[in-house]
Amino acid sequence: MTKVSCAALALIAIAGLVLFAVYSRAKSPAIKDYKNTTYVIDDKPVTLVNGVSEVEVAPGSTSKVVTRYFGNDAKGDLNGDGTVASATPPAA
């Protein structure tokens, strides 16, 4: 192989790796209904139904952890990727 052929193959390989990295980034699906979705809080899934989640502290316990949606969204480019996103801080 000539030096030009090797350089061309190297450029094609680099371009392929860059395209793969750009297009393989996992995108989160857009949440349309913030009151009826699952959030991860302290590494535990919290599923809101009509804006509320009630989970017993322990099986058979009368004490519950209640999480509510308040509707105080923050919108903007939250992670520096150039895309407008929305963050909804639930309160527990």
Indicate the topology.
Layout: H1 3-23, E1 38-41, E2 44-47, E3 52-56, E4 64-68, E5 74-76, E6 85-87
Strand content: 25-35%
Q: How many strands, what sense, and barrel or not for the largest sheet?
A: 2 strands, antiparallel
Radius of gyration: 23 Å
* Percent helix range: 10-25%
Distance between the termini: 65 Å
**Total count of helical runs of at least 4 residues:** 1
Computed structural class: alpha+beta
Integer average pLDDT: 76
> Which strand order do you get reading across the main beta sheet?
1-2
Number of strands: 6
- What is the N-to-C succession of helices and strands? HEEEEEE
- Unreliable spans are none
Shape: elongated
Structure in words:
The protein has 92 residues and is of the alpha+beta class. It has a domain at 27-87. The protein contains 1 helix and 6 strands; from the N terminus they run αββββββ. A two-stranded antiparallel sheet has the order 1-2. It has a two-stranded antiparallel sheet with strand order 3-4. A two-stranded antiparallel sheet has the order 5-6. Strand 5 and strand 6 (85-87) form a beta hairpin.
